[in-house]
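Researcher: Quick test of sequence recovery. Tokens follow.
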């Protein structure tokens, strides 16, 4: 596929470009904070950058009729509405976490949340010290899956790619559900899987859960 990367100089942008090129895909659009280079029309645009990039990303998707895979976190409700509007024109796959593991945990939480309705719950997340947003997008995704207001504790230390733990406790028991991304390559692999999956879609709003669910059929 011909693809473009928004935030191509960043940690995720560099990994995505390396992985996609290794798999035989061709990078034709490179966008970062103060640079843009385009050599052809991309079929897919992949955005792992910043919330500030979103209006330009949307403009580029419309101009190129390109589908969008977006992993950027810290988006507002208005940003999500703009993406929903865009999904009437092109296909969009948005997720705050492109690992299979977190998306499986989300499925589990959505299915069993009512069993935990009278348990205390807290979310803990740890990320590398360069991460700009706090709490993580994944923590918000987990909170949404449990469908109630949950206290989230965040730490930004060292080079940790992404640790999330959900604790459920009552007076006699503690359940701990944990996920650790061992390397951020797992997110680049997820973005690749998502892009290959989205390529044939015409329009609509999808999440990474749609990709893993198809794999389960
Ligand atoms: N959904 C998922 O699975 C994952 C999501 N993420 C998210 O992806 C995003 C990027 O993460 P990461 O690669 O670690 O961060 P980095 O800071 O390493 O990279 C972000 C890149 O985007 C660039 N950028 C900033 N503003 C703009 C703009 N307005 N237009 C174009 N480019 C811009 C930055 O430039 P500069 O450095 O000059 O500011 C930088 O090169 C974050 O939101 C992060 O939370 C990360 C991992 C997994
Ligand atoms: O910025 C990161 O690094 C990550 N961001 C995402 C988030 O905010 O949840 C996903 C992952 O945890 C890594």
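Model:
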């Amino acid at each position: 596929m011909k693809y473009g990367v928004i935030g191509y100089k960043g940690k995720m942008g560099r990994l995505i470009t390396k992985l996609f090129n290794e798999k035989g895909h061709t990078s034709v659009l490179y966008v970062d904070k103060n640079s843009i280079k385009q050599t052809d029309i991309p079929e897919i645009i992949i955005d792992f950058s910043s919330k500030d990039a979103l209006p330009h990303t949307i403009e580029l998707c419309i101009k190129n009729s390109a589908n969008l895979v977006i992993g950027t976190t810290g988006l507002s409700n208005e940003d999500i509405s703009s993406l929903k509007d865009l999904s009437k024109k092109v296909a969009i796959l948005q997720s705050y976490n492109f690992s299979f593991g977190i998306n499986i945990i989300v499925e589990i939480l959505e299915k069993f949340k009512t069993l935990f309705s009278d348990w205390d719950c807290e979310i803990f997340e740890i990320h590398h010290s360069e991460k700009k947003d706090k709490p993580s997008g994944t923590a918000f995704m987990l909170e949404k899956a449990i469908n109630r207001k949950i206290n989230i504790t965040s730490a930004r230390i060292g080079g940790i790619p992404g640790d999330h733990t959900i604790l459920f406790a009552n007076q006699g028991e503690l359940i701990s559900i944990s996920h650790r991304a061992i390397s951020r390559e797992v997110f680049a692999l997820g973005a690749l899987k998502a892009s290959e999956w989205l390529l044939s879609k015409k329009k609509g709003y999808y999440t990474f859960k749609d990709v893993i669910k198809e794999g389960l059929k």
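Residues 9 and 15 are 9 Å apart (CA to CA).
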